[in-house]
Amino acid sequence: MQQRGAEPRPTPEAGRPARLRFPDGFVWGTATASYQVEGAVTEDGRGPSIWDTFTHEPGRVVDGTNGDIACDHYHRFREDVATMAELGLGSYRFSIAWPRVVPTGAGTVNQAGLDFYRRLVDALLEHGIDPLATLYHWDLPQPLQDAGGWMNRDTALRFAEYAQVVGAALGDRVPTITTLNEPWCAAFLGHASGVHAPGITDNAAALTAAHHLNLAHGLGAAALRSVLPATGQVSLTLNLSVVRPATDRADDRDAARHVDGLANRIFLDPMLCGQYPVDVLDDLRHITDWGFLRDGDLATIHAPLDLLGVNYYSPTLVAAATPELEQRTSTRWVNDPQGPDGPARYPGTDRAFSVPQAGPYTAMNWRIEPGSLTELLVRVHRDHPAVPLMITENGAAFLDEPGPDGVVHDADRIEYLHGHLAAVHDAIVQGVDVRGYYVWSFMDNFEWAWGFSKRFGLVHVDYSTGKRTLKDSATWYRDVIAAQGVD
Ligand code: GCO
Questions:
Q1: 156: burial class by Cβ within 10 Å (0-12, 13-18, 19+)?
Q2: Ligand 1 centre and the CA of 322: distance in Å?
Q3: Of 187, 217, 239, at which residue does a domain stop?
Q4: DSSP letter (8 states) at residue 440
Q5: Of these residues, 7, 38, 182, 447, which one is catalytic?
Q6: Residue with the nearest Cα to atom 8 of ligand 1?
Q7: What does the angle CA 267 – CA 272 – CA 274 come to, to the nearest 5 degrees?
Q8: What is the pLDDT of residues 282-310, one digit of tens each?
Q9: DSSP state, 188?
Q10: Does the bond joining 441 to the residue before it have cis omega, within 30 degrees of 0?
Q11: Residue at a domain's end among 239, 261, 276
Q12: Cβ distance 96 to 140 under 8 Å?
């Protein structure tokens, strides 16, 4: 049986150089997202988002917590930026809360909200850290949800207006702006399994939302281009999956093809090739007639992209739907913190299930397999060779407990990050154009439906006092950055 930590360290004997040096200019960063770290949810004119609503509904978050205060980054960002500078970070990926900038989602712009991000960006630039700003990391203004949210096509138009406002205000000092973070989660966890806001459970709604998110990306990218300086870069971040069949049987192999379509190609193909994959359209005709797809949409979605962000944590194992699996999984969804362990329904479809994999695992029960990241990067590069890639999230939750010295000695996180950096290096050696790597996350934060029960940070946060303490992984990452690589 495979044990945690059993991944072999690269050695010269294994045919690789001991020092895996990354190319000059490779970007070293960390990432966070607004609702997960900021707090201050009613401050300076911020309106409510779907995550405020969702987390305050009983039973939605496993530990009953919410992001009202979170890491209080809104007030402590200067201290956090100073720590980033200490670690030698080249870039900080954060997201902008739409309801801070446009509190009702449409119309009036809240200057105080924009000013917060201007202060944050200025603090980063003063420390020589490049800001990478994401426009949508899931905190949709609640009034837009009240009008149908991502099931309503108009939300994509409102997103473009908001993108233009942010681009005009910050585009002179933020070199890269990302339209969406992980539209898969927003569409499928938000509308099919309902484990994320707005908590809807309807596969057809999820497919509608996925298309409107794709459309928002296209319209948002065009809106950004209309106001950004010529050097301004537009990017997108997807959580892409390595999908494998549970057995070699034809039905399981077909389930893997199907889930690959639903997890990866439903976003990659329209955004990078201007078409939906025919197999995905055909597979799901019993769920939707795709009537929301209008003439011209695909040309809009197929917007020029400077960079594709890839968020990656763990591979996915799937099996074809069978009556037995149906029965065993009736209460459990993928990424459902409240369900029992075991096979899980795959959101957006009735044809496939996600099934447990062998360890080692992180505290999320996600299998640790660094080589799968190389596999993914090589595949994306093969399918879409023109677009440069960036690892915009990779990291792990572990059961971090400070030792008697008050410090978290997180050897397991170091091992995870080391293995995945080596995997990225492997991909680069194989010719994949990977421009940088962002650890998820800079600090422990609000892990959505898992609340504060899972810690992903390089920096430990004591949620009762707000105190930050560097974990061993933070100083390890500082050394990696200084050496421009891993041993
Ligand atoms: C994401 C997420 C983060 C999560 C992280 C760990 O983009 O999925 O963007 O918000 O916290 O992935 O689950």
A1: buried
A2: 31
A3: 239
A4: E
A5: 182
A6: 182
A7: 85
A8: 999 999 999 999 999 999 999 999 999 99
A9: I
A10: yes
A11: 239
A12: no
